[in-house]
From TrEMBL:
GO terms, molecular function: ATP binding; protein serine/threonine kinase activity
Protein's name in the database: Protein kinase domain-containing protein
One Pfam family it belongs to: Pkinase
Domain of life: Eukaryota
Length: 468
């Protein structure tokens, strides 16, 4: 036990006091008892002195150093009336008295309590080791990191990295993601959970761990295909993947500003930050990424789940399209995302480039309006697309725009042109929707503030440039 380096027991509803015996674990580097129901004074024996308040927070009845402003108060003093004390008997008399009253029984009780506390502590430690080893069985360390090769594989697992300079093992990636604890979750969906791994040297990675069992050969082949198509400025780079019988994960670059949905709908500062240049640049970047997936690489890739939560932002609010093609890894059927699903999918049950175009149209309306794709009044579901199309068709399209967007756009007719483009993307008939290359060309024109507006070349005659 003395070689134990990690003991993380947070969020387990443990009760009782902390045993000072834990201070004897001299090699302990990570220690966390936060958010349990522990009580009493925090022991500061041995190695326990090295751990901060974060290791003990969330326990309402713990007290003492290192918890700030939480001291272990003693009972309030009472007024004592001096009473003469009787003289103490000789020490030999006390010893004989204790022996005559059965001091052996007293010592048995004391020893029993100490043994019980020690046994409980050892039980907790053993259970922690068991859980940790069980989790690591799914994430076995790749021998010697990544030497001069892109990846190192063994019979039980494979870590493939596309950066030759990457020197960490999968176990190290997992350990710096808190062994996939809730504190490191940055995204959660039906088929996977995304964790942030804070590696040494300031390296941050997003680890997308899939829930469903996928065959290893199919998973590895599909990720290799996606990676080969991912070399574009506004596609989130795939840094590698991990594959074993019990666990599959894709490793991405971490984006610090979260996703577009949260920026638009859950950020109180978004109204100030998201002016016209930033919004149109985000829309253009998304369109260019989808156009590249459809036509720009040797292998055509359908995104299949275009939505604002799958658009990540860096610290400059530049967009990166994520999760392209991953729906096909976990589901052979249509994945219904309320507010984004093209109407023909209800009939055809088949993804196409034009279903991606429809999803982009919804995202573009989100960007222009700042409104959620779906909202609720009681049990009633309200569709942003239906509301926007109704106003547009009645000649009241300008009512949908975010006030910040209108205030900061240098050309009054540009928002109208962007809305017309979104309406085309949302056409009920797939054949009447533009391609993503056409969409990207139009948005590039709207983003070129200092150059004349270009007229995109379309396959069909569409009233794209008229204002509403």
């Amino acid at each position: 036990m003395s070689s134990l380096e990690t003991l993380n027991l947070q969020h387990n509803n443990f009760s009782g006091s902390i045993s000072p015996l834990l201070g004897g674990l001299s090699k302990l580097k990570s220690f966390n008892l936060s958010y349990n129901n522990l009580t009493g004074q925090i022991p500061r024996d041995g190695i326990l002195r090295n751990f901060s308040a974060a290791s003990f927070e969330g326990n309402a009845f713990l007290c003492g150093d290192p918890l700030v402003n939480i001291t272990c108060s003693s009972p309030p003093p009472t007024t004592l009336v001096p009473v003469p004390s009787p003289p103490l008997p000789p020490l030999s008399s006390l010893k004989n008295d204790l022996l005559s009253r059965g001091s052996n029984n007293t010592w048995k009780v004391i020893i029993g309590v100490v043994v019980s506390v020690f046994a409980l502590s050892m039980f907790i430690i053993c259970m922690t080791i068991f859980v940790r080893r069980s989790r690591m069985k799914r994430a076995r360390q790749v021998p010697n990191g990544l030497s001069s090769e892109r990846g190192v594989a063994n019979s039980s697992s494979k870590l493939e990295m596309y950066n030759r300079g990457f020197r960490f093992t999968y176990e190290e990636i997992v350990s710096h993601a808190g062994y996939y604890d809730t504190a490191h979750i940055v995204g959660k969906g039906r088929f996977a959970t995304v964790y942030r791994s804070d590696l040494p040297g300031g390296i941050q990675m997003a680890v997308k761990v899939f829930k469903d069992t996928i065959s290893r050969p199919a998973f590895e082949k599909e990720v290799e295909t996606l990676e080969s198509a991912s070399h574009f400025d506004t596609l989130l780079p795939i840094r590698g993947y991990f594959s074993s019988a019990g666990e599959k994960a894709i490793l991405y670059e971490f984006m610090p500003e979260g996703n577009l949905y949260d920026m638009l709908h859950n950020n109180p500062d978004a109204h100030v930050q998201l002016d016209w240049p930033i919004r149109i640049n985000i829309a253009m970047g998304i369109a260019q990424a989808l156009a590249h997936l459809h036509k720009g690489s040797s292998t055509r890739v359908l995104h299949k789940d275009v939505k604002s939560t799958n658009v990540l932002l860096n610290d400059k609010l530049s967009p990166f399209v994520a999760d392209y093609g991953t729906v096909g890894l976990v589901s052979k059927s249509i994945v219904e995302t309320p507010g984004y699903m093209a109407p023909e999918l209800n009939v055809t049950k088949k993804y196409t480039e034009k279903t991606d175009v429809y999803g982009f149209g919804v995202v573009l309306v989100e960007i222009l309006t700042g409104k959620k794709p779906v909202s609720y009044i009681g049990d009633r579901q309200l569709s942003l697309v239906n509301w926007t199309l109704r106003l547009h068709r009645s000649g009241r399209g300008r009512e949908v725009f975010s006030s910040r967007l209108v205030e900061t756009c240098p050309y009054p007719d540009y928002p109208d042109k962007a809305l017309n483009l979104a309406v085309l993307c949302l056409h009920e008939l797939p054949g009447q929707r533009p391609t993503m290359s056409e969409v990207a060309s139009m948005l590039e024109s709207l983003n070129a503030v200092h150059s004349p507006l270009k007229s995109p070349v379309f396959q069909h005659d569409r009233p794209l440039l008229q204002g509403s």
